Amino acid sequence: MVQLTCKYTTSFTYYTLAWYKHAQEKPPLYLTQRREDDSEQRATNLDRHFSTQLKTSDKVITLANASTKLDDSATYYCALFNPQCCMRVLI
């Protein structure tokens, strides 16, 4: 299992954290997002071997890959944004 951790800070009451995969020579690909209430929205084509966990008390979100494949090789980004607005900040 591979696990990526993203620590964040925010002053927003309502916020969303999203994960993106950026493979070489391809545009970034949206994977999944979680809101501060821990609800999740996943890309329709996201493999089930990816999972996320949000710990608001620690201000940490993790992306886990239970069965890594060669085409999972990429740079992964987490982004924080206020859903009441339009600003996204890569962390």
From TrEMBL:
What is the protein's species of origin? Acipenser ruthenus
Sorted alphabetically, which Gene3D superfamilies does this protein's record hold?
Immunoglobulins
Protein name stated in the entry = Ig-like domain-containing protein
* Keywords of the record: Adaptive immunity, Immunity, Immunoglobulin domain, Receptor, Signal, T cell receptor
The record's PROSITE patterns line, in alphabetical order, gives: IG_LIKE (PS50835)
Q: What residue stretches are annotated with the Ig-like domain?
A: 1-91
Which InterPro entries does the protein's record reference?
Answer: Ig-like_dom (IPR007110), Ig-like_dom_sf (IPR036179), Ig-like_fold (IPR013783), Ig_V-set (IPR013106), TCR_variable_region (IPR051287)
Family matches, as Pfam families: V-set
Q: Does the keyword Signal apply?
A: yes
Which SUPFAM superfamilies does the protein's record reference?
Immunoglobulin
Cellular compartments per GO CC: T cell receptor complex
Gene Ontology annotations of biological process type: adaptive immune response
